[in-house]
Amino acid sequence: MNTFKKSINYIMDKVKTSLLSLNDEQIEKICREFLRADRIFLYGAGRSGLVAKAFAIRLVHLGFQTYVIGETITPPVRKGDLVIVISGSGETIPSVMTAEIAKKIGAKLIAVTSREDSKISKNADFTVKLSTECEDRERARLAPLGTLFEASAWLFLDGLVAKLMEMKGESEKRMKERHATLQ
Amino acid sequence: MNTFKKSINYIMDKVKTSLLSLNDEQIEKICREFLRADRIFLYGAGRSGLVAKAFAIRLVHLGFQTYVIGETITPPVRKGDLVIVISGSGETIPSVMTAEIAKKIGAKLIAVTSREDSKISKNADFTVKLSTECEDRERARLAPLGTLFEASAWLFLDGLVAKLMEMKGESEKRMKERHATLQ
Amino acid sequence: MNTFKKSINYIMDKVKTSLLSLNDEQIEKICREFLRADRIFLYGAGRSGLVAKAFAIRLVHLGFQTYVIGETITPPVRKGDLVIVISGSGETIPSVMTAEIAKKIGAKLIAVTSREDSKISKNADFTVKLSTECEDRERARLAPLGTLFEASAWLFLDGLVAKLMEMKGESEKRMKERHATLQ
Amino acid sequence: MNTFKKSINYIMDKVKTSLLSLNDEQIEKICREFLRADRIFLYGAGRSGLVAKAFAIRLVHLGFQTYVIGETITPPVRKGDLVIVISGSGETIPSVMTAEIAKKIGAKLIAVTSREDSKISKNADFTVKLSTECEDRERARLAPLGTLFEASAWLFLDGLVAKLMEMKGESEKRMKERHATLQ
What we know:
The structure is a homotetramer. Chain A is of the alpha/beta class.
């Protein structure tokens, strides 16, 4: 098999293992925080930031009042808001600072990271640990740098969308109506 | 005088002439559209897009529900919304398309442009003409490309902020409280 | 099994089927276009645009001169450049326009889409068809809107990164050195 | 005179005073750093970040290899690069951090700020002080928050463009050719 397909298989195996090992009850609890929050704020740096934005778009489709920290029109976070920070290492400086400030303000904080003992986890109300740190021989050439974490985070959040859709009683049709017509 | 200061003087003279010639009544009318609108959407391409975003930040400070078209969490424009498109030539393709779609949806449209007969103006409820097209010998070297239009648009919108602040009864203190704490 | 894990399983099955059915020879050909191109330009709207940006970051890590169309410092596309447009429907207006202009300029164009007969494909030198259109009963609730296409595109491009890494003789270590230190 | 025009006059007076008091020799020295640098990196948060991006677009037009810190494809800063940080207070956290890291790497650093004794100035090789702090009674209602600094920074950089154009022997025609065709 060539490197392209080996890489696809490798990434998908690791992502699947990581996501299917997540605790169902924790997922439920986390989703309830979305339903309870006044507003939802997303943050991530680099590729994790792109994953955060992709999720933000779906949250808008689901009817949540959602903001991406760092974008033009984002208001200040307040008590009662939910902040989700995505960072593989959990140590990226702006992510750590965002987590600290969110906590100080009294917002609820969910950390999505590969390290439970990282700096962003210390301030988090919930840490979703995506077990993507793996040092077998193939990782570096089939899934370099943060590839496994970022793909896992993308799919984790897609799964969360399906769960939130169900809990909120949303349909694809209504989500489509909330999709931007001008871009 | 060196080129730096000549350029500053040149740009500021042209900008001032262009802005002080605007009709007071039109400014009033335009500001009333802001107060009447459900939500406000901004659009511009390139440097005009940056001017649009800078204004969007101030509208958020002023307490308007504001979105930048093309950003992650922007919802669909609806009837009752106000769309402001900034384009020097008034012919930039995505700006023209945004104007057309906004009109078709039944939103109010304000065009900020240097050409009253441009494509975006045709769909606009109000055209703010910034008279920055000037072909004296010095322009190309002291204010290349869209420099005069973009500087005029930036300052025009700063002036509008002061006017909206007055009409809406806002203070600098309250605006500061709406300023994002995490970025 | 709860909806979260059902969704993960559903998306991963569809994505895997779609990606493993791709033709190895086409992948090779496409990768050679990357090595041959003067510069690489990425474009996509909405969530597809985020997928495009995530890939752009990795291309920078791999040492390719890479730009995202629509970002601040992007230069004009020229003959000799490679343009990659990502669009599930292949009909999103700015994506279609980007494809048309790229073709007219004489750049090479790769379309990543779920529809081979779409407008962007007509101008493309290569169309990568990700077979993610599926209308079984479960799709709408487990993978709403463009979810399957976007997840497939993300993983397709991760696989391409591994392949390009091999063809270009790059190591994870060197990729890391090209990672931005200030953000 | 109504508030709109009072605001325009007020802002333009303050901006002009601030910019015309700048030292010609310092402007020359700063421009020489642009010509000497390997690559140029811009940074600013919020509205100052938009000013930075508007300048970055012109630097691309002028043929400088230019990056905006925080955008998708930005490479790591190295010794030999020039970093320009724009911050009114000079204390905005990500701006201060960017300045610190730039200095540690050994890049040249220019700070554009209203406070010479601010944190970003401490690490700067050159501080451009825009004297926009003024506490007369009118400021808060005619130019709220950072309005004076941001308008001054926009025009300062427009003046720098004219100066750099002259020093580099660039024409408007050539700048136009470097303007992005796809956006």
